[in-house]
Amino acid sequence: xxxxxxxxxxxxxxxxxxxxxxxxxxxxxxxxxxxxxxxxxxxxxxxxxxxxxxxxxxxxxxxxxxxxxxxxxxxxxxxxxxxxxxxxxxxxxxxxxxxxxxxxxxxxxxxxxxxxxxxxxxxxxxxxxxxxxxxxxxxxxxxxxxxxxxxxxxxxxxxxxxxxxxxxxxxxxxxxxxxxxxxxxxxxxxxxxxxxxxxxxxxxxxxxxxxxxxxxxxxxxxxxxxxxxxxxxxxxxxxxxxxxxxxxxxxxxxxxxxxxxxxxxxxxxxxxxxxxxxxxxxxxxxxxxxxxxxxxxxxxxxxxxxxxxxxxxxxxxxxxxxxxxxxxxxxxxxxxxxxxxxxxxxxxxxxxxxxxxxxxxxxxxxxxxxxxxxxxxxxxxxxxxxxxxxxxxxxxxxxxxxxxxxxxxxxxxxxxxxxxxxxxxxxxxxxxxxxxxxxxxxxxxxxxxxxxxxxxxxxxxxxxxxxxxxxxxxxxxxxxxxxxxxxxxxxxxxxxxxxxxxxxxxxxxxxxxxxxxxxxxxxxxxxxxxxxxxxxxxxxxxxxxxxxxxxxxxxxxxxxxxxxxxxxx
Length: 569
Fold this sequence. Notes:
The protein is an alpha+beta fold. Among the domains are: 5-89, Phosphorylase Kinase, domain 1 (2-Layer Sandwich), CATH 3.30.200; 94-276, Transferase(Phosphotransferase) domain 1 (Transferase(Phosphotransferase), domain 1). The chain has helices at 52-64, 96-103, 108-126, 195-211, 225-228, 234-243, 255-263, 270-284, 288-294, 298-316, 322-335, 340-352, 359-373, 381-397, 406-422, 431-449, 461-479, 486-503, 505-511, 514-529, 536-565; strands at residues 5-6, 10-18, 23-29, 34-42, 46-47, 50-51, 74-80, 83-89, 94-95, 132-133, 142-144, 150-152, 159-160. The N and C termini lie far apart (67 Å).
């Protein structure tokens, strides 16, 4: 029942979710004047022979120890008469179930991004001691937040892995998503769930996000992905097939293996595998006998590989300690220098620091990642992602003490964006944005800043009109982005565009139609106004950008009036 006050502090406003075990309310904190989610649990109820209060209180106690941006935080547990109340972060947004119900099958690149994000949070849960197995991953338990990032909710079926146990205390999970080992088939053969169980449910979740189809009757067999959507990647189909194998030993054995596959899904195409087999066969024929002799030592090599993989997975698991995370990621890179996951996480981790990318941080990140790129397959998507992320780090997060000017950010980010463009892989999701940034940097260097020899080229009408097209392209791409971090990228990019227009206002007014530049101002203003965030620093940057836009627009209007008097417009 809504409009009650719990513990003299939390006013229950309205129910926002119900389940067989509990009701979740939106609640207002009368002391802090902010919203929370409050889960109400009636005492001494049973569902299927399982004590509800024990199950859900165990969930709360488990979650209190966790600290991850993709998980809600428990802030209070209240015992009142007939109910327990668990107070936690209120997560704004809509479930991925709502998303696919409203919009249908999702874009492949978007689902792969979500898959990577979910793989990371599952890896964090599995890295706990003992490992936490979520067991009920599905679109309805995943919130898409306004900033584009995901949060997993509802830990009612999660459990700690118990070494030495052959099966779970109770079979829980949602049929259709649940792995075979999660439910008893009638012959008493259900097994204990482990990390591979969550990999199964993630595979099923990705499959449904791509197809809006899911088997909900035994034996829960999937129609091959590309029979439903032939345009999808063969590599992605193979990943989902492996995730959803009935036998856990045939799945990815941990989230590190799965993350590596997602980062390189295009390499898993049948054509690639066929080529690799041919190369392997050609290589082993002359030395077949030698290979047989090596079999005796194969067991120890496999064991060592498993140990390294486990160590690597633990090192890349996310922690709230920034310094410890940086240290762990560096160790991870040392033991697996050809695995791209640690490089990508390292770039992101530096950006989370309160000090941002200082000169020292930037030089350190560039040194590690530039050396690491030599070990990454240049045909892989991971290679493109790392270069893009390094360019973005310079453009968005650099806060150097000596030179944090737009000039420095533009010129230092250009080589990484150019590395993406030089691959000619136009199908890469950020290719067009990288191409636009390279053109922007080239225009800035040649016609605004001047070359290293100290002179500025004379730009004509064609160059200025081309620059405006690049401005428009960047705004269009960023306007359609809902990814995490897009707000910071928008603010940095719009500042650069405005800076160039202001520096060259006389030439733009003489060579480009008044309307086209005014449209750029209007689009920047509209898109910036729509940025919503609870981040205080980002809100300040947003307000500064809006003021700067007004200033630049006023300057441009003056230059346009002067050009009109001179007959140049």
